[in-house]
Structures are given as structure tokens and as C-alpha cells.
Design a protein that fits this description.
By secondary structure, this protein is an alpha+beta fold. It has two domains: about 80 residues; about 180 residues, no CATH class. Helices cover about 40% and strands about 30% of the residues. It is built from ten helices and ten strands. The chain has a ten-stranded antiparallel β-sheet, sandwiched between helices. A hairpin with a 4-residue loop joins strand 2 and strand 3. Helix 1 runs antiparallel to helix 2. It is elongated. About 25% of the residues are buried.
Length: about 270
């Protein structure tokens, strides 16, 4: 892993804006600190430029000449970051963090770790390291795998899992067998542990012409002390969402598959 940069949200937004991507910069800033008046933004960005000067990433002499104040290395980094054609996003709401992996160039990927929407850490990795980075990011461990447990839900029932008041309604309307009902109870217990929030790993492609992201696929999962709950979308016409408890070997195979998939895409 080759560390490139650690910065604040405001610093990243300013660099992205100056590099010629104001709409992207606005999205970065407003996600963390909300909407501001024009005067408030000017004050924030002025203070932020002083921080970048201290880091030797902002050249005030060039700014006085009306030229781009970013160093050549910083400008190159920002352009590759914004123009990346592929991105993997790994959510971790309980830790208030997000891991994003952007295709950088050739076999290199840009690891982008966001802590509490405040600190952004960037490092270069190779595609062969992707599954290890994701594995270490989540650090999922459990004392002992308790064996196979599974159940299936409709799309509508799956969408209701984030609402505690609807859980029993989901159970009662899903026609679960005795074994499926036991698995569902175990799953709900683990879901409550994480404040009714599933983790997910999503894969996006970027359209340079339309400046839009397209969701290629998404994996929902939930860590447990008994294994890892994995959600799969199937062709089952009645209950397409199949959820089962996986062991460490299957989890490793899933992560390895993500690493192999992105190698084929780029």
C-alpha cells in the first residue's frame, strides 16, 4: 500500500473545486457540513487554503498570478480520482466510516477511507489487494460457525427489515417453515445489534459523458457471532431474496470474487 494523502472534507472539496470539478466538490462538502451561504463558503474555503499551504499542497505565488495553486502532483491525483470509471463502495454505519475503492490506472486502485465524514485517507493499492483491504476493513470474526440457517423473503418484506415495528409483520406474512422461522429470529437478533442496518458492498460504473453513476451490483450482509448473514437476489418469482448464514470460507470466496470481478471490468 502506497499512502498518498490524508486530508479533511473541506480540504478535499477545495482541491476538487479548484481542479475544475465544482459540482463534485459541492457534493463532497454538503454531504459532510450541509448547505451554506455563499459568504460562509468563501470563509470556509479561505481558511482551508491556509491549511493546504501549510501542507505544501497549495502554492500562494501561483494563486497571486491567477494560476491554479495546486501542485502538479496534487492536480494529477484529483483528476484521476474524479474521473475514475469504476468504484467499489463498502458501508460500515456502526463505525461511521466508508471505504471506497476507485480505479486509478492500469492495475492500480485508489483506496479512499472516510472517517465520520471528516477525515479522508488515500492510498494506492493493486487489484490483487482489494479482497484483503475489504476483509481487513470489516475485520469480521466469530467464535464458531453454528451451521447452515436460511430463509427467503419477498422484495417488499426485505425492504421492511430496517423498520423494527414491521419485523413481526414480515415474519407473519412470509409463510416461514419452522427452521426458517428459527433462522429469521437469529437474523433479527443480529440486525437489532447493528441498529437495524445491513452492511453492503456495491459496485458502480461511471459514465464520463453523463456524469452519472450506475449500480452494477450490490451485496447485503450482516456480521454475527455465529457467522455472516449473506443476502442473495435469485430468480425465485415468489421470494427472490434468499438469506443464509455463511462461514469464513464462503466470506473469503465472496471477497476474492469481488477482486476477480473488478479485474475483468477495467
Amino acid at each position: 500500500m502506497n499512502h498518498l494523502l490524508t486530508c479533511t472534507t473541506e480540504e478535499l472539496a477545495l482541491m476538487v473545486s479548484v481542479a475544475g470539478f465544482p459540482s463534485v466538490a459541492k457534493g463532497i462538502a454538503e454531504t459532510a457540513i450541509g448547505s451554506k451561504t455563499e459568504n460562509e463558503w468563501v470563509a470556509i474555503m479561505e481558511a482551508t487554503s491556509h491549511q493546504l499551504i501549510m501542507k505544501r499542497m497549495w502554492d500562494p505565488a501561483l494563486e497571486e498570478k491567477g494560476e491554479l495553486p495546486l501542485t502538479h502532483e496534487t492536480l494529477k491525483f484529483i483528476e484521476k480520482y474524479v474521473n475514475s470509471g469504476w468504484m467499489i463502495r463498502c458501508s460500515n454505519a456502526p463505525q461511521q466510516s466508508v471505504l471506497m475503492l476507485h480505479h486509478y490506472e492500469d492495475d492500480e486502485w485508489l483506496m479512499h477511507l472516510i472517517d465520520r465524514d471528516i477525515i479522508h485517507e488515500f492510498a494506492l493499492i493493486t487489484s490483487s489487494q482489494i479482497h484483503e483491504i475489504i476483509r481487513d476493513y470489516y475485520g469480521i470474526e466469530f467464535p464458531k460457525f453454528v451451521g447452515e440457517h436460511r430463509f427467503a423473503l419477498t422484495d417488499e418484506a426485505f425492504d421492511l427489515l430496517s423498520k423494527p415495528d414491521e419485523v413481526e409483520a414480515v415474519r407473519n406474512t412470509s409463510s416461514l417453515t419452522e427452521n426458517e422461522d428459527a433462522a429469521f429470529s437469529m437474523f433479527v437478533e443480529d440486525l437489532q445489534t447493528f441498529n437495524w442496518t445491513l452492511f453492503n458492498i456495491s459496485n458502480f460504473s461511471m459514465s464520463m459523458n453523463e456524469d452519472e453513476m450506475y449500480l452494477e451490483n450490490i451485496l447485503f450482509f450482516l456480521p454475527s457471532s455465529r457467522g455472516i448473514w449473506i443476502s442473495e437476489y435469485t430468480e425465485d418469482e415468489q421470494k427472490p431474496i434468499h438469506i443464509h448464514l455463511a462461514d469464513q470460507q464462503e466470506w473469503q470466496e465472496i471477497l476474492s470474487g469481488i477482486g476477480s470481478m473488478v479485474t475483468l471490468q477495467v
